[in-house]
Amino acid sequence: MPDNSLNRKIIHIDMDAFYASVEQMDNPTLRGKPVAVGGSENRGVVAAASYEARKFGVRSAISGVMAKKNCPDLIFVTPRFDRYKEISSKIHKIFRDYTDLIEPLSLDEAYLDVTNNKKGNPSASLLAEEIRLRIFNEVGLTASAGISINKFVAKIASDYNKPNGQKTVNPDEVISFLEVLPIRKFYGVGKVTTEKMYQLGIFTGIDLKSKSIEFLEKHFGKSGRFYYHVVRGIHNSEVKSDRITKSVAAEHTFDVNLSSEIFMVEQLEKIASSLEKRLKKHVISGKTVTLKIKYSDFTQQTRSKTLPYFISDKGLILETVKELLYQERMKDSVRLLGISMSSLNTEVKKAVVVQLKFAF
């Protein structure tokens, strides 16, 4: 393991059932009850679920119909993303009291490099406890944390004692921690890859560690090299406080499926307007326009076109999207339409990371 990896102190903060917890905090009548944010008992997809709902198998990305079937008492709540962003901003303000090296993954989770922290505290574990306590006292929500020498292990550790807990994996514990870890808990190993690993006799970290880099590259391509290194505790990715936005999108799920392109164009104009606002708010433009279509049978299709110039104007976006829409006939009625912009004009910046060695 490279010596510099032992120098870093990384905390991964993950809010507990964030969207649902915000709704329960703002509406006391929802506390202690199974709550699903997004979707409905007739259609749509669940964006998040409270811990009370998760006991019944309700989770993000499942249909509202299935969620209601699993949990008849489930309460559906309309998402309020402006509110979630407001709460997230308060949480990040707390983070900035400890370090400027903050890499947000989403509204509800982030990496913090506290190697050289503003508090001068040599213990990342104590800092994590203090941060979690402040989030609870100042925001009213609970968070879990993982602490270790790199982002990979910290991410895994944050899920270990959820909700409202934390786990520290010290430098001398990393290898033994990973060796006994079920392969399905490795960050970046999804359901399909897990099944493939099972077929190859890889069930835990120590099984993965027994495979050569050639074997892993043969079966998993470029990811094989990643698996080879992370199971050995090697993951040198820095916490990047200037993460570059790679795409900006807007989409809408309809209450009634659309079967006419005329109605679709009307909706796409509204979506293009929302996308324009997001692009101009962040002073971003892009060259690649992608149309996302989800049919009534839940199958999904994307169509893209890359322009020779950057755009952010609603009219130009809609013009390109209409071209993509009429590219081929719809195979079924449509339940969701979305537009995204990529190949953005965002500039790449590099953060300077100062690494010192402190005791955990």
Describe this structure in words.
It is a single chain. The protein has helices spanning 3-7, 18-26, 51-54, 64-70, 81-95, 124-138, 151-158, 174-179, 191-199, 205-209, 213-220, 222-230, 261-281, 314-325; strands spanning 10-15, 35-37, 48-49, 75-77, 102-106, 109-113, 143-148, 166-168, 247-258, 286-295, 300-311, 334-344. The protein is α+β, with helices and mostly antiparallel strands. Helix 13 (261-281) packs antiparallel against helix 14. The protein starts with a helix and ends in a 16-residue tail after the last strand. Mean pLDDT is 90; it is low at 347-359. The protein is globular. It is built from 14 helices and twelve strands.
Helicity range? 25-40%
Topology order in helix (H) and strand (E) letters: HEHEEHHEHEEHEHEHHHHHEHEEHE
The best one-word shape is globular
Question: Quick check: average pLDDT?
Answer: 90
Biggest β-sheet description: 5 strands, mixed
Question: Features of this protein?
Answer:
360 residues; alpha+beta; five-stranded mixed β-sheet; 14 helices
Give a brief outline of the structure.
With 360 residues, this protein is α+β, with helices and mostly antiparallel strands. Helix content is 37%, strand content 22%.
Topology:
Blueprint: H1 3-7, E1 10-15, H2 18-26, E2 35-37, E3 48-49, H3 51-54, H4 64-70, E4 75-77, H5 81-95, E5 102-106, E6 109-113, H6 124-138, E7 143-148, H7 151-158, E8 166-168, H8 174-179, H9 191-199, H10 205-209, H11 213-220, H12 222-230, E9 247-258, H13 261-281, E10 286-295, E11 300-311, H14 314-325, E12 334-344
Parallel strand pairs: 2-4, 7-8
Antiparallel strand pairs: 1-6, 1-7, 2-3, 5-6, 9-12, 10-11, 10-12
Helix pairs in contact: 11-12, 13-14
